[in-house]
From TrEMBL:
<protein>
    <submittedName>
        <fullName>Hint domain-containing protein</fullName>
    </submittedName>
</protein>
<dbReference type="InterPro" id="IPR005135">
    <property type="entry name" value="Endo/exonuclease/phosphatase"/>
</dbReference>
<dbReference type="Pfam" id="PF13403">
    <property type="entry name" value="Hint_2"/>
</dbReference>
<dbReference type="InterPro" id="IPR036691">
    <property type="entry name" value="Endo/exonu/phosph_ase_sf"/>
</dbReference>
<dbReference type="InterPro" id="IPR036844">
    <property type="entry name" value="Hint_dom_sf"/>
</dbReference>
<feature type="domain" description="Endonuclease/exonuclease/phosphatase">
    <location>
        <begin position="512"/>
        <end position="767"/>
    </location>
</feature>
<dbReference type="GO" id="GO:0003824">
    <property type="term" value="F:catalytic activity"/>
</dbReference>
<feature type="domain" description="Hedgehog/Intein (Hint)">
    <location>
        <begin position="801"/>
        <end position="939"/>
    </location>
</feature>
<dbReference type="InterPro" id="IPR028992">
    <property type="entry name" value="Hedgehog/Intein_dom"/>
</dbReference>
<dbReference type="Pfam" id="PF03372">
    <property type="entry name" value="Exo_endo_phos"/>
</dbReference>
């Protein structure tokens, strides 16, 4: 009777194109094995189809050759490169085919990892290969396979290099151990089209149709060299005992009963370390039945393995030991102490890696844990660590949560912001592997957390997966929620201000029923958090068939569904503008044809002409597989002013080298810069090349109109300090508006726990000067399962009343911009006379410098809208300083006294500007934009101007100063004269259709008088009547201040009241136990009198020093007057 055949050798995934895929069977020579079939079962999960368990290949055997081998022959892509189970079965009756074919036999219809049917009489040999994908399934146990000719047989799961190709070496091929297999050479040396250079010793050579060749590798059953774990790991990224048989002993610290089944072994605390390599290692067993218990002392023999996924080209290897035998020598041993990360323990260096390497996996350079963060974490791989006071800086996604230990500086919302000089290396991922057990013997549950939450101390195994260092907990982390709330903008449009926002809404298909929650969230964010901007620049909207790759490019239905959802949420019914792309040219998700779109509210703005695109002639170069920038010009309906928006979504960073990968310095995909300092990416479609094209477009527009308001906004896929972003801002072409907000708020995306700005709003000078800006955090800090997008939106408030670079001054030859006036030039006065300019004063003003970044509203220039005073007066918006006087009804009135917040208002968008003053030989009335305003009157402040030196001797600084007695008209600040003017211009604002004045704030005449005592408490006065208020001062208590509500007459009553003092109450007298006491100093205004009465106003917080006494005392306040104060509710509103 012929011997039972067995699976013996295979090559599934060679380097480069798979030309030489093969599988070999070993049996008796010249024997017909046609009753047997090789069956390949899909193990990879698929988002569209139920793929796992389907038979994707079946090869019926024939007759073996003279040496007893049968092969499939060389097949081009004959076997897939993912997770799969290979069975050698007898009397096969099933059908192999594509995973989406109804004819293909599905052995596991409910995808539970157990076969539901077995279309064969028996299984005689099997193995599985795994690429480690989440949710992948291998079918390896007897119960899963069905009937078998080999009782007790458990098929091995091959991973790493062995998953790509391996040869069997074992006296008993049915041990079920992966260590029976040795990884084959993946360069296909000796095969057709393969490498011509032999592989290094220890890598099996492919020998289809012949005896397996170990090429010097240690064979199963050898005990090899006895080493410590640290010796096994080595002191570099090259494992010194890779593919060699070794024996080591130590303590089991954790076990993993799922996925890569095995246990963690760590040297005891008493071990005297002499190297920098890790003192722990993962021991792969491939079978849960072979696992020891946590706390066991074991001696293990196996093969060293620098485990490396065959599908990854830029990740580091992970040292492992593939166990052949595990012998338990004792139970219940104390575990090695966990290494502390954070306070009282270790902190990684701030530099990831200071050197360079094309492949650290082949580097023999010694680790430097005190220099490089990469080396620091490598030196702890496999060891027990404790993250002290873990603070969440990256929300949970796919079971992974990014944290930092205590002692790391956090931003106001609990994250860490990446910068050009700070990569935040203490960040580390906490990943719950539900198969990992610690000393308690329990597995951990997946938890969900968001930025700002805390997990307490997290103890687990530090390991490495796909370019990321992670800690797998051995005890359940406890989430303490910070209840981080979404932000809501403070910027809202009005009659003179337009709003626009940018927002990447992440592969939005609003027609897909499973996206209903996301669509609702999007609508709420637009209406509530962003306040329904006038224009929305959106990115990543899919076509009407979503990810179905059917040639559809239109997105009208999808966009309309978004618009309808926003309207249903209480927002406007937006119109939209976009340009359908050519099919398959946009990059992004396959079949989606993602594009950028403008939504705009026609009640507020109008699209000027049609939208256009930049770079349509460069689809095969600069903008290959990326979105073309969408250009739209919008007119603000209220004023007709225009702004041009360039909606960008530049090349993705997907495919970048891992920061903690084998390539140092790693390359940032889509940029011609590496993260570090070496190398050049010469690809045409880089974000730098895109920046050049977009910036050139803006420069061309500015050449035609230097005052153009242009914004380039959207998803740039680059951080502020990248070379690409510097292209936009170099030479002052554009400025990033995020400079206008607090640095702690400047991020739109959280990647692996790093808060960073990938989305930007850039503006030309005219736009930047007229803009306010906010990033609104609604998504990036929250878990995948609960957020709408992975990006945060930003919003810009733009003054659309037209910032004038030059106020026009009337001259005999026509109006001329004030900055173009020169000394000696003639100007016209309001009387029609011609006067020569004596001097033009210039002064640059930066309110942020003057007021340390918090300028009060009244410091900003006053903008007088066109027609605010009368028809055509002024002819255009006029900007003047608050104290500059207008000539009205024969008198001079400071502009600040006419501010109504509507047609005449402080322009808070202007923080940096240049002031011009025209001086004549004597004070006179000029015509500025057709409005009568004063020339400059030298009252002693000439030294404030930057061009004093231009004044000749007759106008020296020590010359006599003028006064208002020298003015061309009387100065009027009396409310009896000014208030009627204010009322007239406010009524005219109604006629112009400007927004109505807000309802008056609720006010009270209760001054809320109180004493502030030395213990920080407040002691309220009682009303005694007749303007007297009393309080009993407790024994032993001292008084430090007199407190009350307060108001500013010019704010509470109106700007036509020329009293800008803050007033609390007017005090005539204070008595203590009947004796008068004095009151002046801090918080007290000057003495006022009327007849025989006198009083002082205090400002709401005035000094009043009364030392303590052993006895209680009576304090009485005699009040001359109280004011009308805003209530606390009005102030809060």
């Amino acid at each position: 009777m012929p011997a039972t055949p067995q699976l013996n050798e295979f090559l599934f995934n060679q380097t480069g194109t798979d030309l030489d895929d093969f599988l070999e069977i070993k049996g008796d020579p010249d024997t017909d094995y046609s009753a047997y079939t090789v069956v390949v079962v899909e193990g990879d999960t698929n988002a569209t189809y139920s793929a796992t368990g389907k038979i994707i290949n079946a090869y019926q055997l024939g007759t073996t050759n003279a040496d007893g081998y049968w092969t499939t022959g060389f097949l081009r892509d004959g076997f897939q490169n993912g997770t799969q189970t290979v069975l050698l079965v007898k009397n096969f009756t099933g059908t192999a085919g594509a995973i989406n074919s109804a004819k293909t036999t599905d052995l596991d219809t409910n995808d539970d990892g157990v076969f539901d049917s077995a279309p064969w009489s028996s299984v005689v040999s099997a193995f599985a290969v795994s690429d480690g994908g989440t949710g992948d399934i291998t079918y390896t146990t007897v119960a899963a396979i069905g009937a078998t000719d080999n009782t007790g047989y458990v098929a091995p799961v091959l991973t790493g290099d062995k998953a790509a190709g391996a040869s069997l070496f074992a006296e008993n091929p049915y041990t079920g151990s992966a260590s029976d297999w040795i990884a084959n050479d993946l360069t296909a040396y000796g095969l057709p089209g393969g490498a011509t250079t032999a592989p290094p010793s220890g890598t099996a050579i492919n020998t289809p149709g012949g005896a397996n060749n170990s090429n010097g590798a240690s064979l199963p059953g050898a005990t090899g060299t006895t080493v410590t774990i640290q010796q096994l790991n080595g002191n570099s990224y090259t494992m010194p005992y890779n593919k060699q048989t070794v024996t080591t002993s130590s303590i089991v610290t954790a076990i993993d009963s799922t996925g890569s089944i095995g246990y963690y072994l760590q040297e005891a605390d008493s071990y005297a370390s002499s190297g920098v390599g890790s003192r722990a290692i993962f021991v792969y067993t491939g079978s849960a039945s072979k696992l020891p218990a946590v706390g066991d002392a074991v001696t293990v023999t196996g093969t060293g393995s620098a485990y490396l996924s065959a599908s990854a080209s830029d990740i580091l290897n992970l040292p492992e030991l593939n166990a052949t035998t595990t012998t338990v020598t004792s139970h219940g041993n104390a575990l090695p102490a966990a290494t502390i990360l954070g306070t009282g323990g270790l902190t990684p260096p701030s530099v990831i890696y200071s050197g360079t390497s094309d492949n650290l996996n082949t580097s023999t350079a010694s680790l430097q844990p005190s220099v490089n963060a990469l080396d620091f974490y490598r030196s702890l791989e496999g060891q027990l660590v404790t993250i002290k006071g873990a603070h969440v800086v990256g929300a949970t996604a796919s079971g992974a949560t990014w944290v930092v230990p205590d002692g790391v500086t956090l931003d106001a919302r609990g994250g860490v912001i990446e910068s050009a000089t700070n990569f935040n290396t203490p960040r580390i991922e906490v990943y719950v592997d539900t198969g990992v057990k610690g000393s308690a013997g329990t597995t951990q549950s997946v938890f969900t957390a968001q930025v700002g939450d805390t997990l307490g101390d997290v103890t687990g195994i530090l390991t490495y997966y796909n370019g990321v260092f992670e800690v797998e907990p051995v005890a359940q982390p406890t989430v303490t929620s910070a209840n981080l709330a979404q932000q809501t903008t403070t910027l809202h449009g009005d009659a003179t201000h337009m709003t626009f926002a940018d927002y990447n809404i992440e592969n939005m298909d609003a027609l897909l029923s499973s996206n209903a929650t996301r669509v609702s969230q999007l609508a709420q964010i637009v209406t509530n958090n962003l306040g329904s901007p006038d224009v929305l620049a959106l990115q990543e909207i899919q076509d009407d068939s979503g990810t179905t790759n059917d040639g559809t490019v239109t997105a009208a239905q999808n966009i309309q569904a978004i618009i309808n959802a926003i309207a249903a949420a209480g927002g406007p019914t937006y119109s939209y503008a976009e340009i359908d792309p050519a099919d398959g040219t946009q990059g992004g998700v396959a079949g989606g044809n993602i594009r950028s779109v403008f939504l705009y509210n026609t009640d507020r703005v109008s699209l000027v002409g049609n939208v256009s695109q930049i770079g349509a002639d460069q689809l095969s170069t600069t903008f290959k597989n990326t979105r073309l920038p969408l250009v739209g010009t919008f007119a603000f309906n209220a004023t007709g002013q225009q702004v041009t928006l360039v909606n960008v979504h530049n090349s993705s960073q997907a495919g970048s080298d891992e920061a903690y990968g084998s390539v140092q310095q790693p390359y940032n995909h889509g940029s011609s810069d590496p993260y570090g300092a070496t190398g050049v990416n010469t690809a045409a479609n880089t974000r730098q090349a895109q920046a050049q094209v977009i910036t050139s477009y803006v420069q061309d527009q500015l050449a035609a109109n230097p005052d153009a308001k242009i914004s380039v906004l959207g998803d740039f896929n680059d951080v502020d300090w990248s070379t690409a972003q510097q292209i936009y801002t170099s030479g002052g072409t554009l400025t990033d508006l995020n400079l206008k907000e607090d640095a702690a708020n400047r991020y739109t995306y959280v990647f692996e726990g790093n808060s960073e700005s990938l989305d930007h709003t850039l503006g030309t000078s005219a736009l930047y000067d007229a803009a306010q800006f906010e990033t609104v955090h609604t998504n990036s800090e929250y878990p995948d399962a609960t957020r709408e997008s992975d990006h945060d939106p930003s919003i810009t408030l733009l003054d659309m009343t037209c910032f004038l670079t030059g106020t026009l001054i009337a001259t005999p030859g026509g109006a001329i911009a004030v900055e173009e006036i020169v000394e000696g030039m003639d100007v016209l006065t309001a009387s029609g006379a011609t006067r020569a300019v004596r001097w033009l004063g210039r002064r640059a003003v930066d309110l942020d410098v003057l007021y340390r970044g918090r300028p009060p509203r009244e410091a900003h220039p006053v903008r007088i809208l066109a027609d605010a005073i009368g028809e055509g007066v002024p002819a255009r918006d006029l900007l003047v300083t608050p104290e500059h006087c207008l000539h009205l009804d024969g008198r001079l009135v400071p502009a600040r006294m006419l501010v109504n917040g509507r047609s005449i208002r402080h322009d808070v968008s202007l923080r940096r500007f240049e002031v011009f003053h025209v001086e004549l030989s004597s004070h006179d009335i000029l015509l500025a934009e057709g409005l009568e305003t004063e020339s400059w009157l030298d009252t002693g402040n000439r030294h404030l101007f930057g061009n004093v030196v231009s004044i000749g001797a007759p106008f020296a600084l020590d010359a006599g100063h003028a006064s208002w007695a020298d003015a061309a008209a009387p100065l009027a600040t009396d409310p009896a004269f000014v208030e009627p003017l204010w009322q007239r211009f406010d009524a005219r604002a109604d006629m112009l259709g400007l927004d109505p004045r807000p309802a008056p704030a609720l006010r009270t005449d209760d001054a809320a008088l109180a004493l502030w005592l030395d213990d920080g408490s407040r002691l309220a006065f009682g009303d005694l009547g007749d303007g007297q208020y009393g309080v009993t001062l407790p024994a032993g208590r001292a008084v430090r201040a007199l407190l009350s509500r307060s108001m500013v007459p010019a704010e509470a009553i109106g700007p036509f009241i020329d009293d800008r003092r803050r007033l609390g109450v007017a005090v005539r007298a204070i008595t203590l136990d009947g004796e008068a006491i004095g009151f002046d100093g801090r918080g007290w205004h000057g003495l006022e009198t009327a007849g025989e009465l006198s009083w002082r106003w205090m400002d709401g917080d005035a000094a009043l020093a009364i030392e303590p006494s052993a006895q209680a005392r009576r304090l009485v306040l005699v009040v001359q007057a109280v004011a009308s104060y805003a209530t606390e509710a009005a102030i809060a509103a």
